Amino acid sequence: MKSRAAVAFAPGKPLEIVELDVAPPQKGEVLVKITHTGVCHTDAFTLSGADPEGVFPVVLGHEGAGTVVEIGEGVTSVAPGDHVIPLYTAECRECLFCTSGKTNLCVAVRATQGKGLMPDGTTRFSYKGQPIFHYMGCSTFSEYTVVAEVSLAKIDHEANHEHVCLLGCGVTTGIGAVHNTARVQPGDTVAVFGLGAIGLAVIQGARQAKAGRIIAIDTNPSKFDLARSFGATDCINPKDDDKPIQQVVIEMTGWGVDHSFECIGNVNVMRAALECAHRGWGQSVIIGVAGAGQEISTRPFQLVTGRTWKGTAFGGVKGRSQLPDMVEDAMKGEIQLAPFVTHTMGLEDINSAFDLMHDGKSIRSVIHY
Ligand code: NAD
Ligand code: AHE
Ligand code: ZN
């Protein structure tokens, strides 16, 4: 079938809106009509060419919602008409990782996913007879996409896709990082570096966890009002101080914060986030994604004196098991999604979503088909 899609033909170039050919879903695969997709910083990261797993030409997008159109052989957990959120972290419920009870990092389709391929090693997208790669197992920048069955969370038919698509990445990652990775407890102090959708979702999660002080940090002060509305108690712009930001946070808190979260993808900020964690027990969670060749560093003494460095993918959430309930929470107003959607636009304007992000003017742009 034909599908309208925004294709990244080369790194650093605007996406091009073209009509792709989409092959039918094969064994264990599902054809999904995407209705809405958010644009996450990770899409921009991969488009920039900094992603070691970046392959081109590719259909990016991994924060979508849609409906099932057709199922391939052997698919039993979804049926045509079901409403779904594609998952870049699959959940097969059978692999070593899924059955460990310790992680959400399923490996069922991860190896081929990282190469932009379906599990059988081929692509379902083509343009003028040439294969086009998939992205993060989702490729939500195509109106019709093919996804592995294990990479689909079935959700409530009544859910508002313009909002719940954000549970496909940004909001789930931030909230999950607080509850699953850091396990923030009532009264804990929290510092959040970077106030995009991820950082704001961390703040929302921290308030759910009844954190005490929530310190929000961004070099763009236009993010502060929304951060306060989600529960930030203090907002700081690192540019306002000559001292390193970790020193500012330590001076504000005495010994540092119980939990810090890096939601930018900047290795220098990752260091600052670790170093503002409390002596003896503070932990720092890396959420931001850093480019090829970048490395983190700190004095080992920072760890010797009791700080812990952690990371999280999709907030530790098991998508097929946990996302349906998060959608229900959003429908009940227990997870707020609407404030994240600062812009909406049709697919033809998708490049402006990237511009708004780079200019610091959006939290999330949501594309509708
Ligand atoms: P975003 O661009 O919307 O937000 C980033 C924020 O960081 C902006 O508000 C920006 O002003 C701020 N910032 C930039 N440099 C800063 C600095 N030096 N100090 C303080 N603030 C600074 O991005 P987003 O969509 O919220 O994503 C954030 C990061 O999280 C990205 O790296 C993205 O790739 C990553 N991410 C990771 C996961 C995961 O599962 N680990 C999931 C989603 C996104
Ligand atoms: N491909 C990159 C890493 C990109 C990355 O870390 N992705 C996050 C999700 S970002 C969503 O916006 C993630 O979940 N990683 C775990 C995984 O299995 O992909 C690289 O460095 O190669
Ligand atoms: Zn994302």
Automatic annotation (TrEMBL):
Transmembrane segments: none annotated. Has high formaldehyde dehydrogenase activity in the presence of glutathione and catalyzes the oxidation of normal alcohols in a reaction that is not GSH-dependent. In addition, hemithiolacetals other than those formed from GSH, including omega-thiol fatty acids, also are substrates. Also acts as a S-nitroso-glutathione reductase by catalyzing the NADH-dependent reduction of S-nitrosoglutathione. One of its GO terms (cellular component) is cytosol. Its cofactor is Zn(2+). Belongs to the zinc-containing alcohol dehydrogenase family. Class-III subfamily. GO terms for molecular function: alcohol dehydrogenase (NAD+) activity; S-(hydroxymethyl)glutathione dehydrogenase (NAD+) activity; S-(hydroxymethyl)glutathione dehydrogenase (NADP+) activity; S-nitrosoglutathione reductase (NADH) activity; zinc ion binding. This is S-(hydroxymethyl)glutathione dehydrogenase. Pfam families: ADH_N, ADH_zinc_N. GO terms for biological process: formaldehyde catabolic process. It comes from Sinorhizobium glycinis. Residues 12-367 form the Enoyl reductase (ER) domain. SMART domains: PKS_ER. Its EC number is 1.1.1.284. It catalyses: S-nitrosoglutathione + NADH + H(+) = S-(hydroxysulfenamide)glutathione + NAD(+); a primary alcohol + NAD(+) = an aldehyde + NADH + H(+); S-(hydroxymethyl)glutathione + NAD(+) = S-formylglutathione + NADH + H(+); a secondary alcohol + NAD(+) = a ketone + NADH + H(+). Coiled coil: none annotated. It is an enzyme of class 1 (oxidoreductase). Keywords: Metal-binding, NAD, Oxidoreductase, Zinc. PROSITE patterns: ADH_ZINC. Signal peptide: none annotated.
